[in-house]
Backbone:
C-alpha cells in the first residue's frame, strides 16, 4: 500500500484516468510519490510527447484570426509553418534524426487534418474556443464518497452559426484512438 502525503489527491486531470486504470501502482509511484523513471529513451518522442507536439501546433494554428476561413492549401501552409516554429523552439537547430523523422510523420498527419478542416470550413463551422477549461480549480466528482476536483480542457469548441449546433473536438494522434465511451 502506498500512502499519499496528506491523504488522497483532491484533484486530478481527466487524462490521468487512463494511467490509474492501466497500472494503479505505477500511477501511485509516479504521480503521488513523485518517483521519476530514469531512462535513456530521450532520443525520440514517446507517444505522449508526439501528441503534445501535435496539440501545440494545432492550438497555435487554431488561434490565428482566419483559421475558420482557410482553404486546404492555406491550411497546409499555416500548419507547416506552425510545426516548424514549435519544433525548432523545442528541439533546436540540430535535432536528432529520429526527431526529424517524427516531425515529418506529424507533418503528414497535419496535412490529413488540413483536408478535414478545409471541408469543415467550407461547411461554415467556426472555431469558438481553443483549450477551453472550466472556471476554477475543476469540476466536483465523487469517488468512494469523497469529493475530488476533476480538471481538464477541451481541445476545441466549434459552432455552426447557420444551424446553431456546437461541437467539442478532441485531437488524437494515435493510429488506434480509444473511443470516447472507453
Residues:
Amino acid at each position: 500500500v502506498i500512502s499519499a502525503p496528506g491523504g488522497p489527491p483532491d484533484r486530478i486531470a481527466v487524462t490521468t484516468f487512463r494511467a490509474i486504470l492501466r497500472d494503479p501502482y505505477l500511477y501511485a509511484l509516479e504521480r503521488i510519490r513523485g518517483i521519476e523513471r530514469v531512462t535513456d529513451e530521450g532520443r525520440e518522442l514517446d507517444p505522449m510527447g508526439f501528441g503534445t507536439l501535435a496539440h501545440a501546433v494545432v492550438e497555435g494554428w487554431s488561434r490565428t484570426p482566419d483559421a475558420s476561413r482557410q482553404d486546404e492549401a492555406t491550411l497546409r501552409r499555416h500548419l507547416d509553418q506552425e510545426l516548424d516554429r514549435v519544433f525548432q523552439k523545442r528541439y533546436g537547430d540540430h535535432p536528432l534524426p529520429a526527431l526529424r523523422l517524427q516531425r515529418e510523420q506529424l507533418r503528414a498527419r497535419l496535412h490529413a487534418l488540413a483536408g478535414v478542416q478545409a471541408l469543415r470550413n467550407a461547411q461554415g463551422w467556426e472555431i469558438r474556443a481553443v483549450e477551453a477549461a472550466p472556471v476554477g480549480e475543476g469540476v466536483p466528482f465523487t469517488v468512494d464518497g469523497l469529493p475530488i476536483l476533476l480538471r481538464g480542457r477541451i481541445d476545441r469548441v466549434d459552432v455552426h452559426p447557420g444551424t446553431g449546433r456546437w461541437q467539442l473536438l478532441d485531437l488524437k494522434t494515435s493510429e488506434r484512438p480509444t473511443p470516447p465511451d472507453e
User: Anything to note?
Assistant: The beta strands are 11-13, 126-132, 139-143, 146-151, 154-160, 165-169. The first helix runs from residue 16 to 22. The chain is about 45% helix and 20% strand. The first strand starts at residue 11 and ends at 13.
